Amino acid sequence: MPAQPKKRAVVENAGDNAIGPGLAAALANGEDVGPIVRHVFESGKPEVLLHHLRNIVKNKETEIEELCKLHYEEFILAVDELKGVLVDADHLKSQLVSENSKLEDANVGLLSRVEEMIELRAVNTNVAGAILALKVCVHVTSLCLSCNREISEGRFYPTLKTLELIEKDFLHSIPVKTLRRVISKQLPAIKLHIEKRVCEEFNDWLVHIRSTAREIGQLSIRQTATSRQRDEEMRALQREAEEQSRTGSTAFNEYVYSLDSTEQAEEDLVLEFNLTSVHRAYHIYSCLGIGEKFRDYYHKNRLMQLNLDLQVSTMQPFLESHQPFLAQIAGFFIVEDRVLRTAGGLLTEDQVESTWDTAIAKITAILEDQFTRLDTASHLLLIKDYVSLLGVTLKRYRYRVSPLMDILDKSRDKYHELLLTECRKQITDILTNDSYEQMVLKKEYEYNMNVVSFNLQDIDMIPDFPYVVPFSSSVPDVCRVVRSFIEDSVSYLSYGGGFIVNSYEVVKKYLDKLLIEVLNNSLLNIIHGGAFGVPQAMQIGSNISVFGRACDSFFLWQAGKLCGIPKRIVERPHSGLTAKAVLKASQNVAYNKLLYLVNDKLDSIMGQMSSINWTVEEEPEHANDYMNEVLVYLDSVVSTAQQILPLDALYKITIGALSHVSDSIMMAFLNDSLKRFNVNAVAGIDIDLKLLESFSEERYHSTGVSEIGKEATFMDCLVEVRQLVNLLLSNQPENFINPVIRVKNYGALDLKKVAIICDKYKDAPDRLFGSLSNRNTKQSARKKSMDVLKRRLKDMS
């Protein structure tokens, strides 16, 4: 092996003498002679190469001759044997030719029969092929006829299955090219025709479902309303059962049984609407391989319908169109929910949610705008109720309705402001048109309607008729307005996605607002601005007292009942209305107004004291005329107040009037127009005062005021004027200077007032030569004592 590269190197580097051996060695070894040939031609000596190749050929020929000479004998023997074989082969060939001639002569008839058989076999094969082709054509033709019949009958799914069978199993095997070409051309046309027919049916369904969506929504909302009413009745029965249980009613067990055994009398309405066209169209489109196209077509057209449904009619008020509008929306999404659940992927939850989000945003915007336009509470409540029914209805279908409930919560204050405005007008009209006279009830139904229904009765038993109640007609009328307000408020707060949390507290808040800002302010306006007399003022005070009692006995109880709050919770301490205290303050304002009117009347009567003869010569035997009128007036006032006012109010009015009379008498003595008076005039005042004291003592006990535990009695109002009269009639008025006696007998008198009055006191009548007239010793002593008192009072001042 190492010798080869050496030879190659010698060939590459040697001269012409080295080409021959290298070429011979390469040919002997079977190597590639390309490098040698390339080298020779590159060196420009191809003749040398040809010379050496001829030498190599000669050498090889010599070697062959030598080899042939060596094996000559064996070659001759082989040739002889081949010649013998050739002779045998010629003999065998002649025999075969002879035999073949004989066989051909013998089989001439058979060959003709074979040719006939071959022809018949070819004909048979052709006929069988024709029959098979005809069968295929007939079968395909029958399938085509079946397609036509099914299309005419509207049975598109079997048609598509038949077309699929033709296309997959027969189309490429139809032997008749013309038939195959015709069928291949008609298959897409038939599919397109089916698509158009199905689309037309679906379009008809779109028109139909939009026209029936409102009915679907109304039926579903009506079902929700029925269910709500049934729930309300059940809750009312349960509350009544709880109250009976708490009070230990004997009918409780029977009542519980009736609750347990009550069955639902009215079955829920079943919403039925036909989605066959949708299912069929989607299935056909899916079979055609264009299901996605139909999904887009369905979604696009339904969105267009929704946009049309969300347009508010401008031809009629929203109050009239809101129910059809909302029912249409409800029907639309009820249909969408049914399609989502039954159409097998035609809609996705994301698509439905996205559509609902778009709709709910538009609905809330419409409601916000319409709510701002409303100016009547009942209209807003009507729309709110239907919106809440819509929310509850669609919530059953798993739609997110919280934005609807938020809109209702936002409009709560607006609704109550409208409600307060309406109640303010009603209450103002009621109070303005009231005559403020006690109601006379002639029949039991009147009593039940005006007293019992508002829990205003003082006794549990039915009174005798005719019956005079301590309030005027405005009280039951206002109670009706308040009851209606509570019902409307509870109705608005109800079913905003369920009864709102702490609804009772919210109702209490608005109820307080009604009673304080509307009722109380209206009463104050009547009190301050009304031109009425003492009976009317007294009746107003009595009415306010009844309203104060009704805060707990009726208003709060009614709110708790409608909110489903147990009575025991409503009756808890510190759970009352703030309005009760406000009405109490207004009641005091009314009593002050009443007292002002009473005192004003008393002032007109007490003005008659100016006609009293303060220097009368003889001691009078009877009371002055003004006191008789005062007593008659006070008697009428106290008698009327005793019938309609509570004892506290009666006490306040009576003691205020008596105090005013006492002050008026004191002012008569202090009046600058009175220059002097004598003991006889004081004796007349003493008679007046005794009558007044007798009246005060008698009424203090007969009216029952003595039982309420007040510290001051009616007599205490007259203490100052009584002590003044006693001082002026005293035989020793100078004892007033003694602190012990003054505190004991004259503690209510003011020194300055006493000094002024005593300075006017003249014991003798003012007449000509009066100083020369006879006086008894007693009068002289009183005069001297009075003079001493005057001097001491001047010194003290």
Automatic annotation (TrEMBL):
<dbReference type="GO" id="GO:0009846">
    <property type="term" value="P:pollen germination"/>
</dbReference>
<keyword id="KW-0813">Transport</keyword>
<protein>
    <recommendedName>
        <fullName>Exocyst complex component</fullName>
    </recommendedName>
</protein>
<dbReference type="InterPro" id="IPR007225">
    <property type="entry name" value="EXOC6/Sec15"/>
</dbReference>
<dbReference type="InterPro" id="IPR042044">
    <property type="entry name" value="EXOC6PINT-1/Sec15/Tip20_C_dom2"/>
</dbReference>
<dbReference type="GO" id="GO:0000145">
    <property type="term" value="C:exocyst"/>
</dbReference>
<dbReference type="GO" id="GO:0006893">
    <property type="term" value="P:Golgi to plasma membrane transport"/>
</dbReference>
<comment type="function">
    <text>Component of the exocyst complex involved in the docking of exocytic vesicles with fusion sites on the plasma membrane during regulated or polarized secretion. Involved in polarized cell growth and organ morphogenesis. During cytokinesis, involved in cell plate initiation, cell plate maturation and formation of new primary cell wall.</text>
</comment>
<keyword id="KW-0175">Coiled coil</keyword>
<keyword id="KW-0268">Exocytosis</keyword>
<dbReference type="GO" id="GO:0016020">
    <property type="term" value="C:membrane"/>
</dbReference>
<keyword id="KW-0963">Cytoplasm</keyword>
<dbReference type="Pfam" id="PF20651">
    <property type="entry name" value="EXOC6_Sec15_N"/>
</dbReference>
<comment type="similarity">
    <text>Belongs to the SEC15 family.</text>
</comment>
<feature type="compositionally biased region" description="Basic and acidic residues">
    <location>
        <begin position="228"/>
        <end position="245"/>
    </location>
</feature>
<dbReference type="InterPro" id="IPR048359">
    <property type="entry name" value="EXOC6_Sec15_N"/>
</dbReference>
<dbReference type="GO" id="GO:0006886">
    <property type="term" value="P:intracellular protein transport"/>
</dbReference>
<feature type="domain" description="Exocyst complex subunit EXOC6/Sec15 C-terminal">
    <location>
        <begin position="403"/>
        <end position="760"/>
    </location>
</feature>
<dbReference type="InterPro" id="IPR042045">
    <property type="entry name" value="EXOC6/Sec15_C_dom1"/>
</dbReference>
<dbReference type="Pfam" id="PF04091">
    <property type="entry name" value="Sec15_C"/>
</dbReference>
<dbReference type="InterPro" id="IPR046361">
    <property type="entry name" value="EXOC6/Sec15_C"/>
</dbReference>
<dbReference type="GO" id="GO:0009860">
    <property type="term" value="P:pollen tube growth"/>
</dbReference>
<feature type="region of interest" description="Disordered">
    <location>
        <begin position="225"/>
        <end position="247"/>
    </location>
</feature>
<dbReference type="GO" id="GO:0060321">
    <property type="term" value="P:acceptance of pollen"/>
</dbReference>
<dbReference type="GO" id="GO:0090522">
    <property type="term" value="P:vesicle tethering involved in exocytosis"/>
</dbReference>
<feature type="domain" description="Exocyst complex component EXOC6/Sec15 N-terminal">
    <location>
        <begin position="52"/>
        <end position="220"/>
    </location>
</feature>
<dbReference type="GO" id="GO:0005829">
    <property type="term" value="C:cytosol"/>
</dbReference>
